[in-house]
Design goal:
There is one protein chain. By secondary structure, the chain is an alpha+beta fold. The protein has eight helices and ten strands. The strands form two sheets. It has an eight-stranded antiparallel β-barrel. The chain has a two-stranded antiparallel sheet with strand order 9-10. It starts with a strand and ends with a helix. The longest helix is centred in the C-terminal third of the chain and has 24 residues.
């Protein structure tokens, strides 16, 4: 849950590009998220043709009427982030929302042989599209389940991110983290969705920049192939499943363009190749993935 509070109300992120503004105990306005970057989230209320710009972190928000170019100061907002509840074991957000976040960050990973569909497959297998710490007792966090102790590679405020600075894949607004063991750290506040995706993309890019140039080599390093298993599934099998899912997602795209309903079913089936679920849940999953 992500909430931007101000005196007398708040903006709340409902996920899947949907936001609401509440004033007191009543819902006042509905917004669609139109853009996000390392500093700002832009929302649009089509009923009033008004835009609102929220800072990723605490600070001044602004508004602008459609058809104008002048941002006007609005509220001082304070950001409250809480990791979502994953107990229900359903998809965390929609397929289109995940693709939207990947599109925004894809320039980070673009020089590598890692494609958008492969990132989608990894995010599905690692977290079922939940921006959370998914493994019980684990320290990895986010859609791509990157370990916080790896953030030094691309932390914009770090001392050891020169490679990322030269390659233009720094990650901003990373929360503080606390060391909890050898090569382990735990973040103290959750990542926002944009940063969560950027972290995974930056990790892929960093492996590439450190002379792991092949697709298989990057996946092995990202997925720590040396780990004996991922749950009950051997890690090499998990990595192969990512690629099987990627191929199926690519094959589903032409159908998605001409017969969306059938294409959605093919995409859900493709995701099952990376992380399976009960076939009895397919319709329920499809409704969440394609609201």
């Amino acid at each position: 849950m992500e909430k931007y509070s101000y005196s007398g109300g708040y903006f709340v992120n409902l996920r899947n590009l949907k936001w609401e503004e509440w004033q007191g105990q009543q819902k006042a306005f509905v917004f669609t998220e139109t853009n996000i970057d390392a500093k700002w989230i832009t929302l649009h209320d089509s009923s009033r043709n008004i835009y609102v710009s929220l800072p990723i972190n605490n600070g001044k928000s602004y508004y602008m009427w459609g058809g104008t170019q002048n941002w006007v100061p609005l509220y001082d907002v304070k950001v409250i982030r809480q990791a979502p509840n994953t107990i229900q074991k359903l998809p965390g957000c929609s397929f289109d929302y995940m693709r939207f976040l990947i599109d925004l960050n894809y320039q980070v990973v673009q020089p590598t042989p890692i494609g958008k569909e492969l990132m989608l497959a990894i995010f599905w297998e690692e977290s079922p599209f939940f921006n959370n710490s998914f493994q019980q007792g684990g320290t990895a966090f986010g859609f791509g389940q990157v370990e916080p102790y790896e953030y030094y590679r691309f932390d914009a405020n770090g001392r050891h991110s020169q490679l990322a600075r030269r390659g233009n894949y720094l990650v901003y607004n990373l929360p503080p983290h606390q060391k909890v063991g050898h090569n382990r750290a735990r973040i103290l506040t959750p990542l926002d969705d944009y940063t969560s995706v950027r972290v995974a993309c930056a990790m892929m890019r960093d492996l590439f920049e450190r002379d792991i140039k092949t697709k298989q080599g990057i996946l092995n390093a990202y997925g720590t192939e040396s780990a004996p298993s991922h749950g009950s599934i051997p890690r090499p099998t998990v990595i192969q499943n990512w690629q099987n899912c990627e191929n199926a997602l690519i094959l589903a795209q032409p159908t998605m363009q001409v017969q969306p309903q059938i294409g959605q079913g093919l995409i859900v089936q493709a995701l099952r190749l990376a992380k399976t679920f009960n076939l009895n849940q397919q319709q329920q999953f499809q409704q969440i993935l394609f609201p």
